[in-house]
Amino acid sequence: xxxxxxxxxxxxxxxxxxxxxxxxxxxxxxxxxxxxxxxxxxxxxxxxxxxxxxxxxxxxxxxxxxxxxxxxxxxxxxxxxxxxxxxxxxxxxxxxxxxxxxxxxxxxxxxxxxxxxxxxxxxxxxxxxxxxxxxxxxxxxxxxxxxxxxxxxxxxxxxxxxxxxxxxxxxxxxxxxxxxxxxxxxxxxxxxxxxxxxxxxxxxxxxxxxxxxxxxxxx
Length: 219
Prior knowledge:
By secondary structure, the chain is mainly α.
């Protein structure tokens, strides 16, 4: 078994298993999290509205801090949107999703994907520079922050190298295998680190909003 066969076979299977099991574990932690007894009288309506309101309100910084976090927020939204475009609008990726899900959707032109990948990469580098140069961010950063950054950047870099066939002497098949392995590493780490917010943020915020919505004062 060569490296590409390994990347397309066992490595992918184990990464998907870890992704599914880890996601279930995180969701169970959110849903069954132990909470103090709620002694307030439950409301009969408003939980869904409270969940949606919390999801959207927490996506915008508070007015008092907006000017201070504007730079980081713009870069954050840039790389989140860019990654979404690269992952879900690139034809080879769509074909992979089709092999797993059984259906596909329209793709964007390759030039658009390349631009999105480069912009995303630059925004991630800018965020790392911000983290390293800010005394506060540097103080509160830990292994999770830097490793999550690295496993997010790796598929972008290796993917751009594979598309451009720039491997510094490596064959295209080797470049593709390295790219796939970097993606599977991202998949395997996704549920266990801070990157889990990518798909759990709406569940956790919605759960919090629903809980607050159903709490009311006794009449």
